[in-house]
Amino acid sequence: MTIEFASLAFMSPIEIFTWGYWGWGNHTPDLLKGVDAVEARRRFAPPLFVDIRISRFVRAKGFSGSAFERLLGSHRYHHLPDLGNDTVLSGGTGIKIHNPAATADLLDKAIEAGRQNRRTLFFCACEFPKECHRWAAGELLLGEARKRGISMVLDEWPGGEPKKVTVPTPLALLKHVRSGRRSIPLPKDLDIAEWVGLPWGSAVEVRSGDASAWVVSGPAKASAGSWWLPVFSDAVFDSAAVALEAGQVLRSKHGFGRQVVG
After folding, report:
1. Domain boundary assignment for the chain
2. Which residues is 185 bridged to in the sheet?
3. Between 2.60.120, 3.30.70, 3.30.60, 3.40.50, what CATH number should domain 5-157 receive?
4. Helices (H), 119-239
5. Which of 128, 188, 206, 226 is the least crowded, having the fewest Cβ atoms under 10 Å away?
6. HSE-up of 200 (CA within 13 Å, CB side)?
7. Which CATH number fits domain 164-254: 2.40.240, 2.60.40, 2.20.28, 2.60.120?
8. Do residues 51 and 68 touch, judged by C-beta distance below 8 A?
9. What is the pLDDT of residues 44-58, one digit of tens each?
10. Which residues, 6 or more positions from 57, have their beta carbon under 8 angstroms from its beta carbon?
11. CA contacts within 13 A on the Cβ side of 92
12. pTM of the prediction?
């Protein structure tokens, strides 16, 4: 049954995230550790994950079949294949949401989670939102919120505006970054919530002593027990301002940033 807006008058605007699990297939325990740390820092309980894939038969080990559901437990996971992309099964191209009306179910789940001080991430595999059917599902969700008169914020996880941060590194690593390295190892004693919560398009200074370079990055990832930042810029920059400008190009191109209803 659809939850009516009248029963939600006491709530702040509901915030919902889209997300892509690209690169996390073999590291889902680390993923949950990082996501839960970010939400705890923001004073929320561990979030609800809504799987909008039409099929769960994938290569990524941690997301194949019921693997992610078993890891999370039924109280934190919900499969909503009605919001999946029909062309995945047909072998066609483009995006065709299987049952657009299912956005009502997604919004109801997010509202229910909000009452428990939990936020909702609905997800598929693709790294960038505009290249994924979750972008189309998000547009439908925004429309559902407008129809009900519900105030809602939609953003790509982890949300937020780009920041300027510094990572101290050995000089050899700085040279590799200047030569095109696409990852930056993070210290073992890192603040997980800070780095996993790093907004897309942030400017990261890779510094060794007095030498440094700026790159465009986003949320930290994990592999083989280590955490690292991805490098999205094709070039390195001499200043934070230029790196942030490049980060805004990335955000616009791939569909990052808040969309607000109400």
Report:
1. 5-157, 164-254
2. 228
3. 3.40.50
4. 133-148, 171-178, 192-196
5. 188
6. 22
7. 2.40.240
8. yes
9. 999 999 999 999 999
10. 64, 65
11. 8
12. 0.93
